[in-house]
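In this supplementary section we document a worked example of the pipeline. Step one takes a protein sequence of length 335 as its only input; no multiple sequence alignment statistics are reported here. Step two produces a three-dimensional model, which step three serialises into structure tokens for compact storage. The input and output of this example are shown verbatim.
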Amino acid sequence: MAPASHPLQTTFRVADASLLRNKNGYCRNCDKPPSKVKEEKFQKCTGCKIALYCSAACQKEDWERHKPQCKFIQESLDILDTLREGADDADLAVLEKKLTRHALLRDFLEAHRLSLRMIASAQLFLAGGTSFAFRAEPQILVVPLRFLPSDTDAPTSIDPARAFKLGKGAFLPLARVLAESTQNHTRLAPMWHAAQGYRARLAAGEQRVNPWFAGLLPVLYRAELGAMAMEFYPQAAEDAPFRAERPTEAGERAKMRMQARFVELGVFLRPDPAEAAAKGREQAYVPGYLQKVGAKWVWRPVFRDFYNNVEWNRTQVEDRPALMERRVAALRRSR
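The serialised model returned by step three reads:
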């Protein structure tokens, strides 16, 4: 189950777009008000093209503080295209909310990448397997997400691994979904076409290492305020010999329930080199959660020596989510 596209992330910066507002045109560093002299113009940051500075000295002094926000804004240029000169405070407030939601969605999907892939694969099996998704009329799995924090929660206090609740996904014809996007001028169709090169590289990589590779399952995650993201999960044939046993309907449903519960708890898997060495494995994945450390959220394991944990090993599979919930709740209270 090792990720093929990029290493799994264990540290996430807080999603805060509050610095997006240009403080009524004041210098971002020293709060100098905008000049009334035409010849004296404030300069914009050349990276984000949002932050204003009265001088090069102020911009240099503010760089370390502005750098994370600058990168955050540049990564969200597709949303920032909606911003125009002269946007009022209400427009900027909406944009801040969109940017924050977009950043949290990106981190939520990255945190739960392994669980979401398992859930999607199980749902594909229950819908008819790879022959269903990759037939003459290719399918896309559309998964709605509900934003859980309230509007009064400070963005910096939101745990990205617990920012959304998974809805029930549904398979839809890919061609129809793309046609509706083009007709309604939404971002989905451009996203799909922009990812063509990535899909080709990902599929080629899978084909080199997995002779039972059946195709890439496209999954669209949609949240409020236009936040959406598309993932492409490699799928292997159901009869691939590396599977410990052939999938069954009961087994795949149980897998979906457990992984969905872990996502709800904000628990996700990451590789543990120490566990891998102890078990003589190339990779060993252990469950963990995010802890706020300064201006970042950092992954921490739920159990020490997970594979030898007596309580976990003695607990029936169907009771393990409840055990995980108690354990994580205790850890969060103790921090």
